[in-house]
Amino acid sequence: MKTLLSHIDPAVLAVALEQSFNAVVLTDASLDKEGCRIVYANEAFSRMTGYSEQELLGRNPRLLQGPATNPDVMEWLRECLRQGSYFQGSTINYRKDGRPYTVEWNISPVRNPAGEITHFISVQQDISNLMAAQKTTQLFAHVLNVTDDGVLITNRHGVIEFVNKGFEKITGYGLTEVLGHTPSLLKSGEHDAAFYQNMWDTLKQGKTFRGTFTNRAKNNALIYCDETITPLTDEAGEVTHYVSIFRDLTTRVLEEQMFRETMRFDALTGALNRASGEMVLEKAYMQAVGSKLPMSIAIADVDYFKQINDTWGHSCGDAVLKALSRSLIAALRANDSVIRWGGEEFLLVFSGCDLGQALPLAERCRASVQRLTHEQAGQVTLSVGVGELQPGETLAQLIERVDKAMYRAKHAGRNQVQPAAVVMPPAASGTGGAF
Ligand SMILES: Nc1nc2c(ncn2[C@@H]2O[C@H](COP(=O)(O)OP(=O)(O)OP(=O)(O)O)[C@@H](O)[C@H]2O)c(=O)[nH]1
Q1: Which of 232, 254, 276 is the last residue before a domain boundary?
Q2: Is the C-beta atom of 344 inside 6 A of ligand 1?
């Protein structure tokens, strides 16, 4: 050591020590009751502790200790000093004004040519800011993992660098399974190219993109997520990462879907209700007009239904409606529709059927209802009118014609099917029109 530094002026060494960025303190090696005494402290040490060199000289460094100083670390330090070995540690110390700081320091024994320890030199650093930053990082990591929202961070190329526990809960994919992949592994195929184009256009402008994504979880199920993707930029404005935070809406979306589905049907009979039935009818009409394929409808009205109510009560009437509606639905093909058009009146839609095909279908419905035997009401019958959409006819005109046919069935003795009379429309309009 002496040989190595012999070419350096000791005065330069002293200035270097004084101006060192790290705090340096030199103590003697007395291990009596009072312990080591400070014989030198540089400027950085005074800055760190708030004590002037004059206030420090002759004092034991324990003047920096306080309630939060770790006694185990100090015991280990004393043991190292007793054994003349190197010490390194970290604890809480206190400045002159009482403010605590976290110090990381090492102590080396200084030996004379005879090998005896004459001093201890200690180099110290206030790492309070580092500790605070570490704590903040730990806190953020903790917060990220306790939130139910999914968090996904990719690099600028869209490669996943981090996902939190919330992401794992929502998608079923763990961190190690997605690292190195892109978020496209969640793609469900439910969005068109324009959706992703819009997303990238927004992100490339440095803006946050918000949207509801239909993703696919690890178990292949569709998941619905309200997602916010934000590009992170560096000082130069270059994107470094994309942060995506998403909330799982799956339960709500499925409930809404189920609710909407339930709302389409009449609660008593299970047939389509009037509102959704009108939409189905309109759609079938537009398709028929557009495709020039035939379309027929039937109107089926229960015969003498008032008598059933009057004789057996309203709940018996309800049970009859329920049973005969089930029978109509079962009698028809999957793409036909049964609509509860009025109280005891049903409208049947036979898409793609001309009158020749619709008449036997209507007859099948009538017969299936007649075959039922109701507990109190016994046998119940239907009067049915059937008609095929004519060129240029509006939906309202078709319904009116078929309704008239149904009344003809009533007047002809009920429990029968009557085809609607074909009348030439005054002018071909080709539009749906009101019901
Ligand atoms: N139980 C029950 N009765 C209903 C419901 N909706 C309508 N009705 C009843 O159905 C009956 C229909 O009677 P009408 O229009 O006179 O017809 P009808 O007795 O079937 O006689 P025709 O159609 O001429 O054969 C009325 O008494 C209504 O109160 C319902 O949801 N439940």
Answers
A1: 254
A2: yes
Question: Is residue 61 included in any domain, yes or no?
Answer: yes
**Which pairs count as long-range contacts for 137-144, CB under 8 Å and 24+ apart, including other chains?**
none
CB of 319 shorter than 6 A to ligand 1? no
* Domain end point (choices 101, 129, 157): 129
* Residue 424 to residue 435: CA distance in whole angstroms: 19
- Give domain status of residue 134, yes or no: no
Name the residue range of residue 43's domain: 2-129
243 has a pLDDT exceeding 80: yes
What distance in Å separates the CA atoms of residue 43 and residue 21, rounded to the nearest whole number?
A: 9
Q: How far is the CA of 411 from the centre of ligand 1 (A)?
A: 17
Task: Specify whether 101 is located in the same domain as 203.
Answer: no
Look at the pTM and tell me if it is higher than 0.80.
no
On whether residue 135 sits in a domain, the answer given is: no
Q: What ipTM goes with this model?
A: 0.95
User: How far is C-alpha 343 from the chain's CA centre?
Assistant: 44
Label residue 434 by pLDDT band (50, 70, 90): very low
Ligand 1: which of 268, 302, 303, 344 to mutate, judged by most atoms within 8 Å of the beta carbon? 344
